Structure formats: C-alpha cells, structure tokens
Amino acid sequence: MTTTEGTIRLTTAQAIIRWLANQYIEIDGQEMRVCGGGFGIFGHGNVTCLGEALNRVREELPLYRGQNETSMGFAASGYAKQWLRQRFMFCTASAGPGTANLLTAAGLAHANRLPMLMLCGDTFITRLPDPVLQQMENYYDPTFGVNDAFKPVSRFWDRICHPAQVIQSLPAALATLLDPADCGPAFIGLPQDVQGWTFDYPEKFFAKKVHRIRRQSPDADEIADAVAALKAAERPMVIAGGGVQYSRAVAELTAFAEAHQIPVVETIAGRANMLATHPLNIGPIGVTGSDSANAIAEKADVILAVGTRLQDFTTGSWTAFAKDAQIVAVNAARHDAGKHMSLPVVGDAKLSLAALSAALDYTASQSWVASAREERAKWDAYVAENVKPGNRPNSYAQAIGVVNDLCDPRDRVVAAAGGLPAEVTANWRTLDIGTVDVEFGFSCMGYEIAGAWGARIAQAEQEPDQDTITFCGDGSYMMLNSDIYSSVLSRKKLIVMLLDNGGFAVINKLQNNTGNESFNNLLEDCPTIPEPFGVDFVAHVTAMGASAEKVANPAELGEAFKRAKASDKTYVIVMDVDAYEGWTTEGHAWWEVGTPHITDSDRVRAAHEDWESSRSKQRRGV
C-alpha cells in the first residue's frame, strides 16, 4: 500500500471493504456501523483478493462462515428484519455455482424489500484465460454470465470493470439499501482480475460517514384526499403492514387507531404491530388470517392500508373487500401506494399517520367498533380451543400454543413457507411489539433455521438475553438445516421446534382440497419410494453439535421447551404432528390457484367449480 498526497493506493477489494467499514448509521442517537459484518464462503473467485481485504477488518466487519450460499442470504435477511432495515449484512460467494446459490435468497430479500449486499466473484474482464473454471459461456454475448441472472432480483446491480468505479458504485448501492421506497438487495459483481487491480483513491472517500434513514413527508393534497375519504367512512378499517415496523411507526399507528376508534387488522408481515390484547386489534387478515379480520374487511367501506404491498394472501386474491370499498394506501413506495385504484399517500408511515390524525376530526361509530370487537372475541375463543392440547391429534396449533404460553414476551418467533406461516399467523398471540417474523413474502422453504440464525446474530447485538424460536416442518428442515451447525459454531443459540408430518403436508392438503388424490407430497404417497421411513432428527441434530430430544405430545413439548430455554446452546425439539387432522380450519379467505378446467375426475371437476364460485367477489382493479 502506497500513498501520495491526498490519495491512497489500494486494490479494488481493499477499497470496497475499507469504505464499507467506515459507513455508520445513527439509531436512536447512537452511531454504529451500518454493515454488521457478513456471511461468506470462499472459492477461487473471492478468496485471494476479497478474502485478503476482509482479513484486515475481521474485528470491524466480522465474517460468519456459511455452510450454504442460499442460507447465507436467508441469514442476512433475518438480520435485516431484526434491525428493522436500519442495518444489513453482506454476502460474499465465489464465481459460478457459489454465486448462483444466492439467487433464491436475493429473490426473498427483493420480495420482502430487505437490504442485503452481495459481493460476488465474476469472470475475468480481460478474458485472457477464458474459458475459466465455473464460467458460463454465452455464445452470442461474452459479457453475459451467471451474475446477470441477478438483475431481476436486485434493486441495484453493477459489475466493477475498473477500480475507479467503486467511487460511484458503492454509494449508489448503499443509498438503495437504506432507501425506504427502493430498499432491496444490491449486487456487485467483482471480476477476479479487477479485484486485485490497484488505483490511487482519494483519501476522503474513506472518511467516516454517518447515514440516516430518509423520512419522506406526505404530500398535503394527498393527505387532504385521504382525510376526506376517511371522514365519509361509515365502517373504516386499518390494514397494518410490515412497513409500520420499518418506519418505527407502531406508536403512531396505535395513537391513530385510539384517537379515531378505527379497528386495525394485521398482514402477515405486520404481525406484532399491536399486542393481541389491544381492544382495537381485530386480528390477522387474509388467506391465512382470522374470521374476525376477514369479517370486518368484507364490510369496511374505507380501508386505510399502511405499509403493505397488498399481496394476495392479504387481499384474499382481492376477494376480501367489498368491490366498492375505497382503499387509501400509505406507503413510502409509489409502486405500492397506487395499487387497485387506491388513493395514494406516498410518504413515511410515521409522518403520514401523524399528519392524517392531526387533520382528521372523526371517530368511527361505536356500533362498528363494538361489532369488530365481538368478532375478535369469537376468534380468540376459537384460537384458545384450537391450541388446547388433547383436543385432537398432535398439531401445529397445539405446539404454537405451548410455546406461546411459556416463552418470554421479547423472544423472537420465526416461521416460513409450508403450513407453519398460516398456523403461526392465525394462532400466535402477540406478547410484545415486533417479535414475530413470518416470511411469506417469498414463501421460501429453508428460511426457518437460516433466517433465525441471522435474526439471532442481530438479537445478540440488541437483546442478548432473549431467545430466537423458529418453527420448522420436516420438509423445510430436510431442504436446509446446516445453519444448526452454524449456530453452534458461532455460539448463537436457537430454539428449533421441528414438527414432523411426514413430508410436504400443506401442499398435500391443497392437492386434496382441489379434488386431487395425494401424490408425491407425503412420503407415504410417493410412488418412487418403496419403503418410506422417517429421519432420526435427534441423531442428525446432535451430530451437528446441538442438543435435541423427541417428545410424544404437547405436554412433553412444554417440559422440553423449559429445558431448551435453560440451555446455553442450540436446542431442537422434535414432535410428530398429524398430516390431515391438525390444521386450523377457520379464518381463511379465498385464494386464487389454477385448477384444471378439463378433467376426467369428478372430484377435481367439482372442486374446480366450487373454487371458481368465489371468483364473482374478486375486485377488478389495476
């Protein structure tokens, strides 16, 4: 490393890491690095140059050794969620398949609007050694490679072809990662030769910089339009999405609801915006929601949607609302604020709710609020019975109820894909704000353990005495379980509730509900498996260094959970659950899925006709 006046000579890789280590963010008056470190698996595409640079800052930017690139990306998303998108982790992978493994994780971060920086190896810019190990040759465009596949799943994408580019590229990437409207993954491709090339960088480029998350004030005219719509409402309702938490607007949401006596329902991403006991919390909405929330949604005439992208599981594929209901959408992202002929309020949720409340001289009718509370009381009674041990064969709901009763209010709960997101969303009773992470934006199997590991790393920086609890099915476990080992190695304890129903049971349920016979989902229904058998999960878990035990029923699960809480390392509790009788049967809105229009099966034909019978309620918007 040499310097001249006002400059410093560094490799491209060294410059990237030096700059990243000097970027800070102010959170509640405290300055900390905006990047909490990274997850990495080295290969020939990133070990020699980027690895050398990262070794120099091993204290400032700790690098967690991954077991699988996909799970590294999931962990980065779990970390960002725990930090409410105020901090992020980077992922580094080698060229070729190592980088390609991050594609699914990038899709998850993109769908959930989560910041994640990817620093990935690329083929040589000079092309002198082409074709190289793990290079995908494209016959008509030699610049086109594996890394170009990340363009659809990145909010920012660049390939560094010269060391000077990082002066422009890095600030642009970070601006994307911290922007409330454009937040999502940023990808930077690093050709193997360019990583080691040098440049005389301006020293001031590496000066410490403190960032703050932008809060966009809403437009006054849009606020006025929203106020006019709300004043005319006879049956108003608030949909609270994940953006409420990312804006740190929970207090403003609660104050708005209380001041104007407007019932609130939560999206899957917005679970834990309000406590379960709050009298205006009417429950989760949508396909995996509650009878209470869906009951008021179909009657509401004005719907204030705050911080939600109105995904089909929230809207019941747009059948959950009256066709003439007016939606007022508050969102930092213009793309999300204008959906389905909404009145848009483009702005920060915290500022927008405050502005709406100040301008709104209105309270909902006592009869409307009373009816909403009556619906919630009926739903609470259903959930209390649904989670009760012994009311039917072992079920997801029973396991959820046991953990809900025994966990600490500040423990974090994680679930993803399969049947557990629906069961957690419907049955979990929120004990404290911001304690639930149900990944259903991308509905990605495998997130459960990896995302929980990332959340635990962040949680250890915030609330080290709390636990991260993840609910995982046997299907997701078999798909991606290696971060149990990661959690043990890094001493980031997890509690994993591993609920075994013998395969992909929730898709088997959908298969049966659409008139189809069970086929290739449960192990016992796979024609290519002559003699199905279950995995010895306890043996598998203990082989990775964690503690594990199998229990026979919810009562034993409760005692095991107490032992898991007392343990100082990752603890897995295995329980068999019924694949057919254990599901939550209430609370579901219609969901559009493709069903055969022509079939030889009377059952499939009848199911198709029944499914299509609800289409008449579908809202036709843009």
From TrEMBL:
PROSITE patterns per UniProt: TPP_ENZYMES
Domain (Thiamine pyrophosphate enzyme N-terminal TPP-binding) ranges: 39-134
UniProt-recorded Gene Ontology molecular function terms: acetolactate synthase activity; flavin adenine dinucleotide binding; hydrolase activity, acting on acid carbon-carbon bonds, in ketonic substances; magnesium ion binding; thiamine pyrophosphate binding
Superkingdom per UniProt: Bacteria
CDD domains tied to this protein: TPP_PYR_POX_like
Keywords, sorted A to Z: Hydrolase, Thiamine pyrophosphate, Transferase
GO terms, biological process: inositol catabolic process; isoleucine biosynthetic process; L-valine biosynthetic process
Cellular component aspect of the GO annotation: acetolactate synthase complex
Span of domain Thiamine pyrophosphate enzyme central: 223-356
SUPFAM superfamilies with a match to the protein in the record: DHS-like NAD/FAD-binding domain, Thiamin diphosphate-binding fold (THDP-binding)
Keyword Transferase: yes
Annotated ranges, domain Thiamine pyrophosphate enzyme TPP-binding: 438-574
Entry similarity comment: Belongs to the TPP enzyme family.
Record-given protein name: 3D-(3,5/4)-trihydroxycyclohexane-1,2-dione hydrolase
Source taxonomy: Bacteria, Pseudomonadati, Pseudomonadota, Alphaproteobacteria, Rhodobacterales
